[in-house]
Specification:
Blueprint (H helix, E strand, L loop, with lengths): L4 E10 L2 E9 L2 E5 L2 E3 L6 H13 L3 E13 L6 H4 L3 E11 L15 E8 L8 E2 L2 H10 L10 E4 L2
Parallel strand pairs: 1-6, 3-8, 5-9
Antiparallel strand pairs: 1-2, 1-4, 2-3, 2-7, 5-6
């Protein structure tokens, strides 16, 4: 029986842009948040710091938990590839350590080809996962959302 995997992700906003990992698959480019799987005996914060160092070669300051996403692969468009996946993603608002600039790290994920700052106002022009972030971040950056917004997003892609 497959296990549920925890993942820690960083939402890093700067100058109206979202820092993402740029990936390429047979369908083209797609973007995800920096971060990844939590290892046994590792806190979510430690996992997030390690993953950001590996993927974007930067130290981060971790802020509040912003969203929790549950992803059950069998329920989504890529079920033939990841139908066994059940992952809980904890998305934290983060900032880059002062004086640090992100770039490709030393331990890239399978599809990772770079990093990219995506303008918040243009998120809907890109294949960003989870897609629900497109509207949530645009709404937040416009000032229409407050810190009491529900953080559990459910099983979304």
């Amino acid at each position: 029986m497959p296990l549920i995997r925890n993942s820690a992700k960083a939402i890093i906003l700067q100058n109206g842009q979202l820092l993402t990992i740029k990936n390429r698959d047979p369908l083209g480019n797609f973007y995800i948040l920096p971060g990844g799987g939590q290892e046994h005996y590792e806190t979510l914060h430690k996992a997030l710091r390690r993953e950001c160092k590996e993927e974007i070669e930067v130290e981060i300051v971790i802020g509040r938990l912003q969203f929790v996403r549950e992803y059950i692969g069998a329920h989504h468009e890529f079920s033939e590839y990841d139908g066994e996946v059940h992952q809980i993603e904890f998305m934290f608002r983060c900032a880059l350590e002062e004086g640090h600039s992100p770039f490709n790290g030393t331990m890239l994920d399978t599809y990772q080809i770079g990093i990219c700052w995506l303008p918040i106002a243009q998120l809907d022009r890109n294949r960003l996962y989870p897609a629900v972030l497109k509207e949530l971040l645009k709404t937040e950056c416009s000032g229409e959302i407050d810190s009491h917004t529900q953080i559990y997003l459910g099983d979304v892609n």
